[in-house]
Amino acid sequence: MKHIASLLLSTGLLAACTSTGPSSPETSSYGSAIEALNVYYRSIPASELPAGPELKELDLSKPLTRIMVASCNDEEKPDPALASIAREDADLFLFIGDNVYGDMDGRSYVSFDVELAELRESYNDLADMPEYNAVADAMPILATWDDHDFGLNDDGEGFPAHVLSERIFEKFFHMDDTEIVERPGIYYSRMVGPPGQRTQIIMLDTRYFRSDLMPTDEYGKTGKERYIPSTADAQQMLGDAQWAWLEEELKKPADLRLLVSSIQIIPDDHGWESWDKLPAERDRLYALLEETEAEGVVFLSGDRHTAFLYKDEDRGPYPYYELTASSLNQAFARDPVSTEYDGRQIGDGYTPGNYGEVEIDWEGETIQLTIKSETGEDVSVVGFTFAEINAG
């Protein structure tokens, strides 16, 4: 069926793959082209997709006490931070986006890479990466994606190959026999531990359904670097089905909820991707947390190539904390102290290679969020009690 993909390219029907606007004969043709392309993507045998190393099964009956979290891993470079994670005595690793960089050699930008050849190569490289294999040998892994392992920088629902990128992701991380493959997107949750020590891990998909962001009107200006908050009437971060699913998840009894978003939730003061760029959707998230009376919520995020800690004290019935763990081996800044500062930020941002830790003391009823250097030293720490993140 590869002739379908070739035909779509040759007729130019995918040229406007990220265009938006009112329906027209051209956009109708585009929709038909995407439908045909998806038929092809679903026909590709699973045996032709990259396979990752076997993963340890997460024991849902035992309470979690130490969780590692990280993002932004270039599979073609050494990764000291990932190697340090493998040496941690941890219960779980959350791999929360840009787990590979499958859109960096230009194929996705110059012309649409129908077969996602670069993305497949990147996953094959990850499968061979010693540091990743060491982590897979050491602890269970739960993963979600961000733009570079979704398929295209900063993209969302308009990316025409998302059906294939989803299949690649699910195959690599061994999600073939889970509920995840039964619906579009890769959102899912796990409830771990007995009553009184239950940690709910909610893995959101902030790519598959996300609508376009609003480009900045002052490119590169501090606080407006690339995007500004959208004023569009129709905004989507999660999509209707995922929102409905999330509502039901938040109603389940849990003592601690780790809400994992590949992009940041709390910050307001930078111009990069984050939930505040779709403000109606972030308002919806905060409203849903309050309406469902979901307690014990802590946010985990990545994406930013800098690690941060935040505390949001005024937009919910109790304070929301956020740990941004980024990046593993994709540091951009030369100064280890970030010049960025948000009004809800705790301390300085940390730019070198890093990862995060969530430490849970069930007996002492405390939680600690830590930014760790690539060699495992504590860089920045915030601690709080279960009582603080409980509206009662």
Features:
392 residues; alpha/beta; Purple Acid Phosphatase, chain A, domain 2
How is the topology of this model organized?
Elements: H1 2-10, H2 25-43, E1 66-70, H3 80-87, E2 92-95, H4 107-110, H5 117-128, H6 130-138, E3 141-143, H7 147-150, H8 162-172, E4 188-192, E5 199-203, E6 214-215, E7 227-228, H9 240-250, E8 256-260, H10 279-291, E9 297-301, E10 308-312, E11 320-324, E12 354-361, E13 366-373, E14 378-385
Parallel strand pairs: 1-2, 2-3, 5-8, 8-9, 9-11
Antiparallel strand pairs: 1-12, 4-5, 6-7, 10-11, 12-13, 13-14
How is this structure best described in words?
- The chain is α/β, with parallel strands linked by helices and 392 residues long.
- It folds into two domains: 1-43, no CATH class; 51-389, Purple Acid Phosphatase, chain A, domain 2, CATH 3.60.21.70.
- Helix content is 26%, strand content 18%.
- It has ten helices and 14 strands.
- It has helices at 2-10, 25-43, 80-87, 107-110, 117-128, 130-138, 147-150, 162-172, 240-250, 279-291; strands at residues 66-70, 92-95, 141-143, 188-192, 199-203, 214-215, 227-228, 256-260, 297-301, 308-312, 320-324, 354-361, 366-373, 378-385.
- The strands form three sheets. It has a six-stranded mixed β-sheet with strand order 3-2-1-12-13-14, covered by helices on one side. It has a six-stranded mixed β-sheet with strand order 4-5-8-9-11-10, with no helix packed on it. A two-stranded antiparallel sheet has the order 6-7.
- Helix 1 runs antiparallel to helix 2 and helix 3 packs parallel to helix 6 (130-138).
- The longest helix has 19 residues, at 25-43.
- The radius of gyration is 20 Å and the shape is globular.
